[in-house]
Amino acid sequence: MEDFDYGIIGGGPAGYTAGMMLAGQGKTVILFEKDKLGGTCLNKGCIPTKSFLHISGVYAQMKEASKLGIIADNLTLDFAKTVEKKNQTVERIRKSLELAVKNSGVKTVYSEACVKDKNTIIADGAEYKVGNIILATGSKPREVKGLEFDGDFILSSDDILNLTELPKTVLIIGSGAIGTEWARILSDFGTEVTVVEMAEHLVPAADTEVSKRVERIFKQKKIQFFLKDSVEKIENRTVTLASGKVLTPEKILVAVGRTPVCPECESKVVLGDACGEIQLAHYAIHQAKAEALGIPFDKNLVPSVIYGEPELAWVGLREQDTDETYRKNILPITALGKAWCDDCTDGFIKIITKQGQIYGAHIVSKEASSLIHILLVAVQNHISINELKKLCFAHPTYAEGIFDILLSL
Ligand SMILES: Cc1cc2nc3c(=O)[nH]c(=O)nc-3n(C[C@H](O)[C@H](O)[C@H](O)COP(=O)(O)OP(=O)(O)OC[C@H]3O[C@@H](n4cnc5c(N)ncnc54)[C@H](O)[C@@H]3O)c2cc1C
Q1: Does the CB atom of residue 17 touch ligand 1 within 6 A?
Q2: Does any ligand 1 atom lie closer than 6 A to the CB of residue 112?
Q3: Three-class secondary structure assignment of 94-148
Q4: In a mutational test of the pocket of ligand 1, which residue from 16, 31, 41 has the highest number of ligand atoms less than 8 Å from its CB?
Q5: What CATH code is carried by the domain that includes residue 229?
Q6: In this structure, is residue 302 part of a structural domain?
Q7: Best mutation site among 30, 40, 93 for ligand 1, i.e. most ligand atoms within 8 A of its Cβ?
Q8: Is the distance from the beta carbon of residue 328 to the nearest atom of ligand 1 less than 6 Å?
Q9: Residue of minimum CA distance from atom 38 in ligand 1
Q10: N or C: fewer beta carbons within 10 Å in the chain?
């Protein structure tokens, strides 16, 4: 039996970040992981989907390349190879992570672990005495009654990564980040995609103007969607929606959120998805940082990003959260030279302001995932619009769109 200052269960972003940071503080740490280091984010979530988004995006661009004077005849997609590339990306990052965790001094045990008491963890038949226990056990795809996952017809976001062939048609239930990104991936690969969303708009968590733009983009991409609708019944692979619409998809992806996995135990610190708060990798990482290093962050200013072309990113107040004392300003991305050079002119930068301060930012644009951080710094630090106007933005960039919108205020 060995003694450790900390025992952490779960080797996803929350667990490995907390482990490495605590080890950096001179604590002895043991980390238990029942599957692969990196958790959902690296193995089944953020990274594989972004790898697929990149590949499907290149394929979609190649199909349009003749507009740029590039003739790419006989374009074909080798789906098995794209899966191989995605796997290589995941494995490469995992190897670096395994090395970083090892080098930090954290001891990793690859086994399912459970808590015996507030100072004892049991794993692989052994008992480990620890001063403190951190649970970072993550979450799993949420199942819906009548739409139980079968790994063949009704798929979770884990199952869909096991596809060996692209389906001709897919029905996606839910248009949050996971549903929207998979709609983009599959549609760009050539699958006919239909999305069913219970809410009034796609991407219900976003500012309504962002949602409406996504709806326009989906229409352009011929992604069919039904709003304020849901699955009523499934019989013999035939889906009837509440609206009466009948669909016969080859596969169904259920993307309606994730259920926290959090074993009951006394005296615990719970980090990441297991908390059931904001289920994002960066939230998990920054919670772990706050726990291990005591560096806090503002939980109301956690940026959201949905990837694909164009990216969607937002932080802070949405227009629908505000009253008439706030102002909104919008700059269409067509105002930017860089957008024309890149042939990516669909989108906008929108800011919500009041009395010379920015309270919310909503971006639909290439590079939105990076741009949002400029506005996050301004919102979080209450940097006035007049102060921001003093910054020099490089040209031609998407970032200068932020300068342009500030000038209009
Ligand atoms: C398709 C998809 C795309 C996503 N894209 C993004 C994105 O672009 N950006 C973003 O910020 N977030 C994204 N997410 C969410 C992100 O993956 C999670 O928020 C993040 O992984 C949470 O980290 P975590 O450490 O809390 O949990 P997890 O990453 O789920 O890790 C928990 C770990 O605990 C292990 N574990 C559980 N129980 C035990 C036990 N008893 N013993 C030992 N080990 C155990 C599990 O095997 C797992 O490895 C995505 C999720 C999905 C599904």
Answers
A1: no
A2: yes
A3: HHHHHHHHHHCCCEEECCCEEEEECCEEEECCEEEEEEEEEECCCEEECCCCCCC
A4: 41
A5: 3.50.50.60
A6: no
A7: 40
A8: no
A9: 137
A10: N
Q: Is 282 near ligand 1, meaning CB less than 6 Å away?
A: yes
CA dist 344 and 347 (Å) reads 8
Tell me whether residue 304 is in a domain.
no
pTM check: above 0.85: yes
- What are the DSSP calls for 64-83, one per residue? TGGGGT---TT----HHHHH
Radius of gyration, alpha carbons of the chain = 23
Is 262 within the bounds of a domain? yes
Check pocket membership of 9 for ligand 1, CB cut-off 6 A: yes
Residue nearest to atom 17 of ligand 1 (CA): 41
Query: CA–CA distance from 58 to each of 185, 306, 393 (Å)?
Result: 11, 18, 29
pLDDT in tens, the chain (409 residues): 569 999 999 999 999 999 999 999 999 999 999 999 999 999 999 999 999 999 999 999 999 999 999 998 899 999 999 999 999 999 999 999 999 999 999 999 999 999 999 999 999 999 999 999 999 999 999 999 999 999 999 999 999 999 999 999 999 999 999 999 999 999 999 999 999 999 999 999 999 999 999 999 999 999 999 999 999 999 999 999 999 999 999 999 999 999 999 887 665 799 999 999 999 999 999 999 999 999 999 999 999 999 999 999 999 999 999 999 999 999 999 999 999 999 999 999 999 999 999 999 999 999 999 999 999 999 999 999 999 999 999 999 999 999 999 998 8
Q: Counting atoms of ligand 1 from 1, which one is nearest the CA of 16?
A: 25
Domain count along the chain = 3
> Omega before 396 cis (within 30°)?
yes
Q: Is the CB of 306 under 6 A from ligand 1?
A: no
Task: Indicate which residue's Cα is closest to atom 48 of ligand 1.
Answer: 39
